[in-house]
UniProtKB/TrEMBL annotation:
Lineage: Bacteria, Pseudomonadati, Pseudomonadota, Gammaproteobacteria, Pseudomonadales
UniProt GO molecular function: glyoxylate reductase (NADPH) activity; hydroxypyruvate reductase [NAD(P)H] activity; NAD binding
Entry protein name: D-isomer specific 2-hydroxyacid dehydrogenase
Assigned GO CC terms: cytosol
Lineage top rank: taxon: Bacteria
A Pfam match: 2-Hacid_dh
Length: 326
């Protein structure tokens, strides 16, 4: 008998068709009664596929047949791993396929914030361009400036390569531990958090959200940054204390910020909207046609292996898988 899969995010028709080859598939209709659809689907589901919904004890308690969840994302901070462990529910994610695309977006934010691309685009379209621009609208250089990476994982390293080899930027980094191979490849120097904040011209936040990294950058840390420095966040909103960041941007205690993620998404009625030195994007780090397709395929592949046999490529909680094999 086919197992049941509930898809709680948008999925392209060809991916739906692929899933239907092996599973009974039900799809969340975003225009319908969301709570009623979850209530109907969860008790039957052996597998879940999608992105961006908080899944903890309260949400998953009714899902008594659930064996695996395939998240179409690299981040999985919206899952309660302790509860998944308790329930023996396997969780997979989609690393690797989004690394370069997300690094591209990080660099786009960096360039945009430094050269005021978004701000001046709006200025031109508002009809303000009457004469050659003067120093009031100048930006700052990117090439040759010091690039500070908080979290030199795969995406952090991909941003660092762009900076080092494309823009001649010295790279410094802070994270859980030293990365000798990347230090050699990038000529990167390890710094304490405080040293990095004081030295970098660009601080790129690329750490996963966890209890250790929640509000990693707050008022104290922002005060350590240079007044000319630019902060980029493509990780998760709560890694920054957003209220403290807004104050720092408003008072020009740092130069600018490039943000793709926020404490509460979608971002609505935020003081950030009034700040020309904040570039605000709608959580689009991996949002290209090619990469979203690759992520969906990787997630489906993981789910097929988890429910049909074979080892999924991207297991977040390997102890669950190990118990299942024992
Ligand atoms: O934020 C996006 C992801 O985690 O893939």
């Amino acid at each position: 008998m086919k197992k049941n899969v509930f898809v709680f995010s948008r999925l392209a028709p060809e991916h739906q068709a692929r899933l239907r080859q092996h599973f009974n598939v039900s799809l969340l209709d975003p225009d319908g009664d969301i709570a009623a659809q979850y209530a109907a689907a969860l008790p039957e589901a052996h597998g879940l596929l999608g992105v961006g919904r908080p899944f903890g004890r309260a949400q998953l308690e009714p899902a008594r047949r659930l064996e695996a969840i395939a998240s179409i994302s690299v981040g999985y901070d919206n899952y309660d791993l302790t509860y998944l462990d308790e329930r023996d529910i396997l969780l997979t994610n989609t690393p690797d396929v989004l690394t370069e695309t997300t690094a591209d977006l990080g660099f786009a934010l960096l360039m945009s914030a430094a050269r005021r691309v978004a701000e001046l685009d709006a200025w031109v379209k508002a009809g303000h361009w009457q004469a050659a621009v003067g120093p009031a609208l100048f930006g700052g250089d990117v090439h040759g400036k010091t690039l500070g990476i908080l979290g030199l994982g795969k995406i952090g390293a991909a941003i660092a390569r762009r900076g080092r080899f494309g823009f001649g930027m010295p790279v410094i980094y802070h994270g859980n531990g030293r990365k000798p191979e990347l230090e050699a490849e990038l000529g990167a120097g390890y710094r304490s958090l405080d040293e990095l904040l004081g030295e970098a011209d660009f601080v790129c936040v690329v750490v996963p959200l966890s209890e250790r990294t929640r509000h990693l950058i707050g008022r104290r840390e922002l005060a350590l940054m240079k007044p000319s420095a630019i902060l980029i966040n493509i990780a998760r909103g709560p890694v920054l204390d957003e209220a403290a960041l807004i104050e720092a941007l408003r008072d020009r205690r740092i130069q600018a910020a490039g943000l793709d993620v926020y404490e509460k998404e979608p971002l609505k009625d935020s003081p950030l909207f009034a700040l020309p030195n904040a570039v605000t994007l709608p959580h689009i780090g991996s949002a290209t046609h090619e990469t979203r397709r690759a992520m969906a395929e990787r997630a489906i592949d993981n789910l097929e292996r988890a429910l049909l046999g074979g080892t999924p490529r991207d297991i977040v909680n390997p102890q669950v898988w190990a118990r299942r094999q024992a």
